[in-house]
Amino acid sequence: MTFSGELLAFFSLAVVAVLGGVLLLNLSKVMHMVLALVFTFVSIAGIYVMLSAEFVAAVQILIYSGAITIIMLFGIMLTRHDDRSEPEKGRLRKFLLFLGVLGFAFAVYIGIYDLDLGAAPNNLHENNTEQIGIAIYSKFIIPFELTSVLLLVALIGSIVLAKKDDDEKEANKE
To answer: Alpha carbon of 18 to those of 38, 42, 113, 137, 163: distances in Å?
Structure first.
């Protein structure tokens, strides 16, 4: 097995993605967790670039690394939460968790070791943004519009819940 620059770049991005996910689960400060999540999102976008999916990489950075991260921060800052410290987890629990993750990684490795997906078409990376646009606005226009309506309903629902919470606070103050 020879190591090329592409393989080294993939492993570097994969390590950053996995490390960001592990840090997200193990850090205690919310801002640090969000920063680890951003590292994970950006490294996944780098993997998309390596797969010649530039549009998906750009959407990954714009939507997930930008918008979703900001929405999560606002949601955390605007909600009530008690600042109670969790009891420290024991070493045995951490070791068992590590063994579980290692076992899962081994099972995934065994599952994909001899996997043969056949030959992929060579023209997937050509005009992929145009192909996505044509597919969304021709074959998948109904699911695309239903998704936008669903997101609008979720936005209206969150506004109604936030307004109801404010009304309850005002009633309790009086």
So the answer is: 12, 12, 20, 35, 38
Same-domain check for residues 73 and 133: no
Q: How many residues does the chain have?
A: 174
> Nearest to residue 56, comparing CAs of 112, 152, 125, 110?
125
Q: Is residue 86 part of a domain?
A: no
Residue 28: inside a domain: yes
Residue the block writes with tokens 């490390």: 19
DSSP assignment letter at 61: I
Contacts of 101-104 with CB under 8 Å at 24 or more apart are none
> What element of type H or E holds 31?
helix 30-50
pLDDT by residue, tens only, the chain of 174 residues = 567 888 899 999 999 999 999 998 888 887 888 889 889 999 999 999 998 888 889 989 988 888 888 887 777 777 666 656 666 678 888 899 899 999 999 998 888 887 776 766 666 677 888 888 888 889 999 998 999 999 899 889 888 887 776 677 777 776
CA 166 vs. chain centroid, Å, equals 31
Tokens of 98: 């590590």
Residues 130 and 74 reside in one and the same domain = no
